[in-house]
Amino acid sequence: NTLTKDTKAMRRHHHHTPLPAKLASLLLITGSSILLSADTCEAFPPSLFRKRSTSSLSRASIPLSTFEAIDIFTSVATDSKLRRDKIYRYPTRIYSSSAAVDGSDGEGDEKKKYIRPYLKQLLLLCRPINFPIVFLFHVLGVHRAVEFWKMTMQPVSTSSSSMLLSLLKEPSMIMVLLSLMLVTSTSMITNDYYDARNGVDVVPDDTDKNESIREDYGHYHPLAQGTVPFSVTKTFDSYLYAILLLSSAFVPGSISRLMVIGGAITTYLYTNELKPKTWIKNISCAALVAMSPITSGLAAWKVLRDSTAATAAKVSTSVPYALIFQSPLSYLVLSLFAGIMCREILMDITDCEGDAKAGIQTLPVKYGKEMASTVAMGWSIVACISACGESLVKWVPIGISRLMSMSSGADAMSVTFPAARKLVLSTLGGGLFAQKTYQVWRTKGGDVVLAEKAVRDGLLGVLLVLASFM
């Protein structure tokens, strides 16, 4: 607003409006609301600005925060001293690292000012190994929405597979998947950033042991090791949050959109606000993951409801709560919640020493590793039972009669095969996850390497459980 009001004054002094400075000011003001903190741009070196004439301000102090930088841009239009010296300040590039403010350009640290040299390490910080799991969550949510749609909308001539593929190719559903992946990525980067800055992630003195753990089990902490600057990581994370907020605007359905935005807020608040609180950090992580299929399912329901066929059929516009609470999706959500609770506790066991030094009261820090491993074992049992819950409900009352009817013919076998397949996959997946947790429980949580191995190997069990719901 200041720049707009003083356009005439600037024209009187400079005969034109410095549009690049105006645009840069608007971008900084808008971007400051989505940056990780007010001091994301920790320092602005003199080479940030290109001057058209020299002045007494050429060696002036450089602003140290985003809001001070905004004041510099807005003062171009209002500060009489700047107008009198006829200095044009145009942003040419924004530096991510703390640079010298003594007037030098800091060319020796040129590599630290850009994201590209560290792009590989930054992408690894996003934990791309989690992306297939996120994609499966998304597909499962859409799949359950399609099945529930076919149950409530009779008759539906289109096959479930055709509806599923068409929904997955919808641009709005692609934005849902992108948002879920960005929520996962930002949570990993933000957590690693603050853990390294607060001293939670510490590189062990035994280098050989550390390399072994990192290579075998993916214990990758480039920020703690000093291979990636903090400022570059913060800037990269800011870009991801900006893209996340933009993509959330295209998520269909108000509830799904609020879930995505709520997930983004949770990932930002996690390390500083939620992680230091015992139990709260584990519950928030588990709830965040368990809500992913629901987000995709409700978004898919919104797309189906807004389709031409749905409008012609006069579908109710109410939220399909039965999709969440009266369908197999409820078993999936409960299984995911319990499984992630177990996994988070196991990860707390591996980070117990660093959390204790940083004063983070996790479960193993507050109650001991033995207690934490016992709680993790309990959650793994709950996850296993929940994964098999739908099959058990169907099989226990009539299991004997159906097993006896299998011998009568192939038709009876075809009726029971989907339920049998689901029971086998869910039992194998839940059993594998519980077995890995049991190994940690036997050591009373004392074997950190075994706990790290259980976290990684447990992913196979999660995949089997997810496959059982398809």
Number of domains: 3
Strand content: under 5%
Using only CA atoms, what is the Rg?
Answer: 27 Å
Structural class: mainly alpha
Order of helices and strands: HHHEHHEHHHHHHHHHHHHHHHHHH
The tally of strands reads 2
Averaged pLDDT? 72
Share of helix, binned: 55-70%
Low-confidence stretches: 1-17, 22-27, 29-111, 207-218, 407-415
- What profile does the largest beta sheet have? 2 strands, antiparallel
Subcellular location: Membrane
Membrane topology: Multi-pass membrane protein
GO molecular function, one term: transferase activity, transferring alkyl or aryl (other than methyl) groups
Main location: membrane
Structure description:
This protein is mainly α and 470 residues long. The chain has three domains: 2-101, no CATH class; 114-327, no CATH class; 328-470, no CATH class. Helices cover 69% and strands 1% of the residues. It contains 23 helices and two strands. It has helices at 2-5, 7-14, 19-32, 66-78, 80-85, 119-125, 131-152, 160-168, 171-197, 207-217, 222-225, 230-248, 254-274, 280-305, 308-312, 321-325, 329-350, 352-358, 363-367, 369-387, 389-405, 410-442, 448-468; strands at 49-50, 90-91. It has a two-stranded antiparallel ribbon. α9 (171-197) packs parallel to α13. The longest helix is centred in the last third of the chain and has 33 residues, at 410-442. It is globular, with a radius of gyration of 27 Å. Residues 1-17, 22-27, 29-111, 207-218 and 407-415 have low confidence and may be disordered.
